[in-house]
Design goal:
By secondary structure, this protein is an alpha+beta fold. 15% of the residues lie in helices and 23% in strands. It has 1 helix and 3 strands, in the order βββα. The longest helix has 10 residues.
């Protein structure tokens, strides 16, 4: 899978980020919350990212980042 960083909250590798893949999907890097109370299937997960990260992606354009 080819992964391209679209937007991040910083320039190092351990910050919330959104990536595009060559599969036409997005990968989201963020904190793994434990207090959400959701029932998530074993093959899925939930990550928490700052709102500003998504807003920045929208401002830059999904593929134009």
């Amino acid at each position: 899978m080819k992964v391209t960083k679209l937007v991040s909250t910083c320039d190092i590798k351990d910050c919330p980020s959104i990536y595009a893949t060559d599969r036409g999907t997005l990968l989201v890097q963020g904190e793994t919350p434990t207090d959400h109370g959701l029932q998530i299937p074993a093959h899925e997960t939930v990550v928490e990212i700052p709102e500003e990260l998504v807003l920045d992606l929208i401002r830059k354009g999904l593929r134009g980042a």
